[in-house]
Write the structure tokens for this entry.
Amino acid sequence: MKCKFIPKVIYKEWTLTYQMEPYMLIAFATSMAPNGVDIWLSGGISAKLIANNILKYSIVDRLNVIKNRSLTIEDGPDLPRPLAGHCQVLLCYGRVFIYGGVSSIYVDRTMQTFNYSNQAYLWVNDSWSSIPVKNPCSNKGQDLAFQQPCAEQIISNQTLVVIVTFIKRVSCTSILNLNTYEWTKVNNVDVLIPIGGHLVMSIDKTSVFYMGGLYYKPEESQSLDIFELGSNGWRLIEAKLPFGISSNETKSYPSTHNITMH
């Protein structure tokens, strides 16, 4: 799929496309598929019910394809490793980028232990390739938020991936240039970004917006704010969301969101 405009389709009712049972799946990632039509649903944490009402947790290493026209589910390619809570975004020319998340989990009655992944992968030419990772926002998995949103941005024919990481509920934004594999940290400590929001891009992929999430200070509250990423970091714009959106179990579809500012 090359970079192109996709007609907007509005559905007036919900259709059940895929039943998760007999296991529960959370913290998965979604994006449009390389063909720009279907949806890729990858990874996540499965919780299977075993004897005596005990749940067994595991990290999923597979990828499912939700066929947009037939509303059916098919097996897709394997992930390069088990992943949950990672970010995933469709890039130009049918490439899919994934980053971060956790690769293993240990759960007992008192605590959960996660093995955080600081790896990035790119789906290109029908296979996964590893990308050098020197993310200035990485913290060796210490106190990281479970999910990190990411979105594509095109500036001067350069393909960039914007990633927001939360460390102890404080945001850190980094940008990966996929032309040079160089990472840049966005210095914007004066702007409070709510946790658990979504990154979306403008229809021409030149602008990136962060919206929704939860504020924790002075008290926990849903955010209706929208931030735009500029050369000097994030700035709060006048537009507001009609309602709050935040969740650790849902993902936006960055490649299909259009934002119109009046």
The chain has no helices and 23 strands. Residues 23-256 form a domain with the Neuraminidase fold (CATH 2.120.10.80).
